[in-house]
Structures are given as C-alpha cells and as structure tokens.
Amino acid sequence: MSKSTSDQTVRNPSDTPAFGSILERNLSRRAVMRGGLCALAGLGAASLAPWAARAGQAESGVTLGFASLPASMTDACVVPPGYVAQVLGAWGTPLNDQARPWDPDGGNSAQDGLNATGMHHDGMHFFALDDSASEGLLAVNHEYIDQQALHPQGPTQPDGRRPAEEVRKEINAHGVSILHIRRQQGRWEIVPNSRYNRRFTSATPMMLAGPMAGSAWVRTPFSPDGTQVRGTNNNCGNGTTPWGSYLTAEENWANCFVNRGERAAHQRRMGVSDKESRYHWESAAGDPSEQQGEFARFDITARGSDASQDWRNEINGFGYLVEIDPYDPDSVAVKRSAMGRFAHEGCSFGTPQAGKPLAFYMGDDARFEYLYRFVSDEPWDPADARRSDRLAVGAKYLDRGTLYAARFDEDGSGRWLPLTPQAVGKDGRRLGEIFGGLDGIILNSREAADQVGATPMDRPEWTATHPINGDIYLSLTNNSKRDAARGANPANPRLDNVNGHIVRWHDDSGSDAFAWDLFLFGSPAGAPADVNRSGLTELNQFASPDGLAFDPRGILWIQTDNGIDGGRKNEVARRINDQMLAVVPQALSDRQGSGPAIGPAEQAALRRFFVGPNEAEITGFAFSPDYTTIFLNVQHPSNWPAYDSDDATVAAQGKVRPRSATVVIQRVDGGKIGV
Ligand code: FEO
Ligand code: CA
Ligand code: CA
C-alpha cells in the first residue's frame, strides 16, 4: 500500500495494549533478564523439546558477497558492481496479439489492458516449468492504478458520470498477470501468445470457498447462491502454497465501494465511505453497454427489498486470499474465505511437517490492526506437494481450519487466540453468539480479534518463513499515529514509530504458544541510540520495511515503502529512495543479549543491494531456482523507466509517462545472486 490508496485513519476501538507498549516493556525486561532464552519459558514444558533440538541446528552458512550500496536519489535503479538490471513486463506490455503495443500517450483501450500487464506491480512468484531455471511462469500482482498515467489526460467524469470505457480500462489494470517468461542469451522475455499468459482483473469471475461460500452474506444478483464473485481487487503482497499454487492478497479494496445508506460495523471498520468511492466506478452504472451491473455493483447501498434487488452484498466477496493455479490456464481462481477477511497484505506458510497441520501467517495492513494465523484441519501429506490438481489440494487444506489472531506478551511469549464460535470474548459471550456462526466471524474478522484481546500492531505487512529454522518474520512498516491515537507514552519518541521494525517468532502448528523477539529496527543513521537501536549506518539505514522474503538459502530480503505518508516525511526518505536490503539472520533460539537481534555489532550483516528510482516503492520478490536471477517490482515511479532502453539503471530523458515494472537482476558473470 502506498500513496493514493493509503488510509491513515485509526479505526480500532480495542483497549488491549498495543504492540508499541508491549515492545517497550519487553526491551526493558530484556535488559534485566539478559538473553532470548528467557522467552522460551513462555512456551511451556511441552514445547521445549523442539526448541532444544533446534538450537543446535546448523544454519545455511551462506554469506553475502557484495558491498553495501551508498544512497541514491535519481530516476534510475542502482545495483552493485558486477550486476545488471533489466526492465520486464512494464505496465501495458502485451501478452498476446489481442493487445496493441503500449502507447506512451496513454491511448490504449480497455481491451488492450485485458491482454497486457496491469499497473502498479506488487507481490509475485516464479513458478518453474519442468524444473527449468530459465523458463517459468511469473505471477505478478497489480495493486492499484495511477489514473493520471492510465488515461491520456487523466480520469474524466463528464456530467458526473465516468465513461464506461475508462472504468473498464481501470478495472482491467488491476488484478494479477501470469506471464510465461524465458531466458535467452542472458535476457528474460515474455513468451508472446503463450497459452499460460493470462490476466485476472477486478471483473474476472472467481469462486468463493470456505465458510462464506453460499452464506447469506454473499448472495448477489450475479451469484444468487453466493458461490461466485467478480474480480479480485488491490492485490498487494502474495504467498505460495506447499503444493505450488499462488496466493494473492486483497488489501485496500474497501474504498472501491460506496455505501450511501447505513454502513455495517465491519464496513466502517474497513473504511467503506458513505460519500464516495475511490474511482467512482459506480457512476458508470446505466451505461447502455453495462453487463449484469458491472458498474452498479460498486454502490452497495441497500435500496431494494432484499439482497436480490441491489448490490449490498457485493463487497462481502472481497477481502480474502485468492488461490490461483498458474500452471492451469483454464482454472478458475478461488477466494479462500476461511483464512479471514481484512486488508490482507500477504501470506507465508510455516515449515510443513508430515502428519501435522499446516500454518499460514498473514498481516492486516492498517494502523493498530492484527496479525493472523490460519491452521488447517487436515494434517500435511507430503504426497500432496506433487499433485497436479492444485486447487483441489487447496480446498483440502485452506477451506477448513482455524483462524487465530496474535497476542504478544511482554515476557517474549505470545498466544494465538482462536476466532471460533466457541471462543469467549471480552464481554463473556461466545464469538458465535456475537457474530452468528463462523461466517459472521470471518466477515467481522477484525471485530472478532478485538473481542479475544489480540494485540493491535503497527501496520503488519509481509510475513516470511526462514527456510532452515522455521522462524517467521513480520515487517511492521510504521505507525506515526501511535501517540495521538492511543495516548501511549508520549515521552518516548521511539513509540512514535515512524521508521518501522521487523519482529519474528517461532511456533508450532499444533500449539497456540509462540516466542518472539525484535529482529531489526528501522532508523536514520544519525538518530540517537534509543531510536537507532540496530546501530544503522549510512550504508544500511532504512525506514518503512514492507516487502519481506527469504530465499531458500536463508537470505532475508527487505524492501521499503516510504510513500505512505505522502512523500519524504521521514529522515531516511529524505536521504535515499526506497530500497532492498539483504541479511542472513541467525536463529531466534540462538539469541543472547538484550537488544534487537541486529544491533551495532552486526552491521556487516545488513547490506543494501538495490536502490529504486525517485518516488517508487520496491516490492515483490521472486528468484529462479538456480539463484542466478532475482525479480523485484518497482511500483509507482515518478519518471521511469527510460523509453529507449530496457536497462533499469538508465535514467529517462526528460519527462516520461511512468510505468511500474518488474526488474530482473542478474550477475554479469552468470553467478548466483547475493553471494
Ligand atoms: Fe500494499 Fe500494505 O502494502
Ligand atoms: Ca506499504
Ligand atoms: Ca506492501
């Protein structure tokens, strides 16, 4: 999330202590108790055996082999010496002959857009074809749009109504692209007209599965039985599954809708406006070309006698993780409602263990919203990793299970709190009584988490699972509203967390307990020690960590998004563009000492690998299986890429219509990235 979709309003009314105050007390305690192992006591005796075994486990031994980059603020990307960076699949790149080439004057049609890459690239994943390191399917999210860049002169609304063609063009620029890509002579390219190339947009029909499917909440004139939804929206971060499918996360979907009547509590909590929608798509309703209320559905005001007469339930089909099988071009995407309904940022799964349930971790990116875990009912069968009916495997593990919200405790322990009908809320009532069954709990995931006393967090973004030791990492991007909103400890500037930090924990899918510690604090290099707790220097200062991904070697890649507050409002953002850093973490269970895991003594461990062009966020991470190529996304640049070169490090000449794009990074010598 960033810039035009940002929503800084605090809507969480919970009085449960927020993560900032828990963290402050935890850091004070650590200083007294010394040593992360204190926290392990919180897991209880039953959980200690796996910990003891893990503490002696060898780590990957990988070391970073590049020098940290200096700051940069230009209209170009920067990579370390010996690396090259190529622009791939920039917004509007045709996937087939149905689309005309991208028009630098903004003149492409909605139909072109349906057959080309979307805008504002975000989460992504590389799915190898036949285990190849040089050919595969790149799934790329398109989070939102820049209306100014999309249309020749920006959006229009003559006589108060958006033209249908403009609205369709915007709808088609959202969603997900599946790109068949291959490497030839060291260059990656999209395979034109491949049968794998496809687009999912904000209008593509998809299935709804899990507790919401068929419920009264999701019945619409389009889907009277409540099993289908049109479109996926505002696809931010991503996840994958152990069986090789893609998960795309619906984040800031709420303000694509307007409810001019009485808004339900969950609509107010999500930020649905009673005045106007973000893009006014509903204003095109009644156009002679409109099909099945394709525009009207964005106005969810209850006007008819019931849900068959209006679009009141349309919005209830959004806010989910959506599973896509990129390998099957004929497959229909499925919204997995059992995994909760909120501003989904992304999803990572815990290390699968045969015979044990699978666990998935998910952030809800809004101020003071929660961290969630979904645990499957079905124990993991490793044979399912090799099945080709991936969405059937998805139904097995993702449609039945338990959703939890996290409570962090100051002693370094934590608890996953189940959001089940039987769970008892703060007022002594069961969640089933309050929300009316599991479908009502899912619909009101945030409110259910309030009830059980989950810990309000500082905008939880991506999660990432350490490939060797199974620790889970979470970026808490920033929260400059902390003091004003909560009245918490205004004397301590650290609590006004404008720079963000990364927390991590370890748990077991069979247990509700976890142990956590603080991995890394964002900060300007010159800040006082109680702000710059990780001792960052000019060569690795960062703020607003957002994208987070481990590669299988144990390198953690950290991406930043400082755009949220409308520009360069923190000190780091005034000194450097958004960036990607790399670090090789040691295990949480091996911790000694009282501060964050990365402190002043570990500065060589955290290195800046990439700096983006002006005003762009860096997000999304993928790699080829041989580690010789990594992919990242440059989102919402202001004046990039260059028109006459696909070299991402070349600055544009003059002022160009900007295009979000994937950047492909390789070594000149063809070696492995980062080492
Ligand atoms: Fe789409 Fe929370 O970033
Ligand atoms: Ca963000
Ligand atoms: Ca993000």
TrEMBL record:
Region named Disordered: 1-21
Q: Where is the composition biased (Polar residues)?
A: 1-15
Q: Could you tell me which PROSITE patterns the record lists for this protein?
A: TAT (PS51318)
Write the signal peptide boundaries: none
One of its Pfam families is PhoX
Per the record, the domain of life is Bacteria
Q: Which InterPro entries match?
A: PhoX, TAT_signal
Q: Which PANTHER family match?
A: DUF839 DOMAIN-CONTAINING PROTEIN, SLR8030 PROTEIN
Q: What is this protein called?
A: Predicted phosphatase
Q: Which organism is it from?
A: Bordetella trematum
